[in-house]
Amino acid sequence: MQTMKLKSLAFGLLIMGGLSTSCIQEDFSECHNTYCLELSYLGDNNTEIFPEKIGRVHMYVFDKHNQCVASRLLPEADVEAQITTLPPLSSGNYHIVCIGNTYNTEVSNLNSGNFEQMTFADSDYVSGETVTGNDSLYWSSVDCSIAPYDEYKQPDTLTTYFASSHYDIYVEVVGIENLHRTSKIQAIELVGVSPLTNFNNIAGSQNATYSMEFAEANNGDLIATNNIMRHRVQDAAYLRVVGDGGVSLIEVNFAQHIAKHGIDITKHECVIPFRIEFEPSNTINASVKVTVPTWFVELVKPEF
Question: For the chain, how many structural domains are there in total?
């Protein structure tokens, strides 16, 4: 109920703001109809979870030639209320793209006129730095037809529905004490991931390597989490645990891991989990067992 009141109040304020223009009765050249854009994210269960998942939104407006005619970071109040106004637009057809949670994300080629060439990526990747992961990104698009100005026309409201642009990655490494080496694990890498997503919400471009940040739990296990773009094809990507001197201790192919453990990558809120367990061994190198965490098994098969 409180959310509905907030949206109603915000809608009223937006309309009042939209009417406060330089438009005068004798000259309609500066007059524009007011259009509102409602922001929605239903996730996987057709339940509104936008407030839980998205806290920041960039909006981009394109004309019929795919030229960006307006862009802005939406005010926090608009994001909280899940509704905003479109900028003043002349009559015609437009395409609106919104990207959510762009905290450490940069957009490139915005003026290319081609949505496949317009991309968003982690700012560290754009600047050539080591990438540890992506923001938890979401994307939406909607077409909008702006009618010629009509002083009696009631404000129109469009709804843009967000979709996920990322996968959550979770890695736990256990049994480190069984390694027949005195050094600690040096890195947990995601190799062959796609660092860019275009304005059609398709991940692609050249492959990159992410170096995951990890922490040591009280029991000595290592935990690493981050986000990657939603790959259309997982075959080229793999997880690698790196030991002393850059030695690869284990490499796990994404596609094979996903297929083996029945991970549903079609879900908007998809977690790809790995459990890397070094087991005791009489040989020089410890044997390695690759599974998924217990909590994931229980989540997928609650009857167990």
Answer: 2
Specify whether 202 is located in the same domain as 158. Answer: no
Range of the domain at 217: 166-300
Full-model pTM: 0.88
DSSP collapsed to 3 states, 14-59: HHHHHHCCCCECCECCCCCCCEEEEEECCCCCCCCCHHHHCCCEEE
How, if at all, do strands 35-40 and 248-253 pair?
unpaired
CA 94 and chain centroid, separation: 24
pLDDT in tens, 141-167: 999 999 887 666 677 899 999 999 999
Dmax (CA) for the chain in angstroms is: 91
Q: What is the CATH number of the domain that holds 185?
A: 2.60.40
Per the rule left: phi > 0, alpha: psi between -120 and 50, beta: everything else, 295 is alpha
On whether residue 184 sits in a domain, the answer given is yes
Helix (H, G, I), strand (E, B) or coil at 183: coil
**In 131-286, alpha helices (H):** 254-260
The encoded tokens of residue 263 equal 């991970």
